[in-house]
Amino acid sequence: MKAVVTAGPTLEPLDPIRFVSNRSSGKQGYAIAEALRDQGFDVTLISGPVTLDDPAGLHTVRIETAQQMLAAVNAALPADVFVSVAAVADWRPAETADRKLKLDKSAMTALPLTETPDILKTISHYTADQRPALVVGFAAETHDVATHARAKRLRKGCDWIVANDVSGDVMGGSENAALLITGTGDEAFARTTKPELAARLAHRIRAALEQNQSDVRLRAP
Ligand code: C5P
Questions:
Q1: pLDDT digits (tens, 9 = 90+) for 69-92
Q2: Which phi and psi (to 5°) does residue 103 adopt?
Q3: Does residue 67 sit within a domain?
């Protein structure tokens, strides 16, 4: 079975020197890619700029921008499962200059931005053979985690959402706790290391796909 995983931040350039990005470390996404590999999946990991090494035994594709990430995901499909762990920048500078911008400090009070493609939503809405049987999104929330994550699952059109409470030290830290929202019920993953949480999720993904292959519906409304 084949898996595509996105991880890390995206980096959206303003010019060759400056960019818009975020603090995602890539740790949870890399751990999920490795855990799926350990479950026997053929894994393509599409990663934004992080300081982690390419994991052994899977195919890592390095990109910078959200647009490049979407193109790399499309190139890696078809797959049985898509796991969208990346902290994709929601906005990018509306224009990218080829040369370092000379900024007039008194005039520069606003940075024009435009939306990046929503990769998870795009892949979730593919039809038939193009759409992975299972599409899993992540939701980083600081409050009302389950409520927001349930709404996000419907908004994005994905099958499952893994919801994190990031109000503490999760971003960049080595531990995580999550709520898996499947549409047929919620499952809590207690706080543990990111690799252990990844192993549990990968096991759950393989079981769902195997059940799906024996003709049980994976998607719930
Ligand atoms: O809307 P929000 O950024 O909170 O959604 C988080 C989920 O959507 C994550 O799974 C993330 O990888 C995905 N996402 C995406 N493309 C975007 C924004 C978010 O794939 N432009």
A1: 999 999 999 999 999 999 999 999
A2: -90, 130
A3: yes
How many CA within 13 A on the CB side of residue 20?
A: 19
CB 187 within 8 A of CB 197: no
Pocket of ligand 1 (CB under 6 A): 6, 66, 84, 86, 88, 90, 116, 118-120, 137-139
Residue 220 lies in a domain: no
Predicted confidence band of residue 175 (pLDDT cuts 50, 70, 90): confident
As a whole-number percent, the residues of the chain with pLDDT over 90 amount to 76
Query: Which of the listed residues 73, 88, 141 should we mutate to test ligand 1's pocket, taking the one with most ligand atoms within 8 A of CB?
Result: 88
State the pLDDT at residue 216.
Answer: 46
Which domain range does residue 121 map to? 2-211
- Going by C-alpha positions, the residue among 13, 35, 34 that lies closest to residue 93 is 13
CB 135 within 8 A of CB 158: yes
Residue 66 burial (CB < 10 Å; 0-12/13-18/19+)?
buried
Kindly report the pTM of this predicted structure: 0.93
Q: Output the domain CATH number for residue 195.
A: 3.40.50.10300
**In-domain check, residue 218:** no
Tokens of 117: 């493609």
Q: Is residue 221 assigned to a domain?
A: no
Please give the positions annotated as active site: 22
Nearest to 152 by CA among 190, 144, 48: 144
The domain tally of the chain equals 1
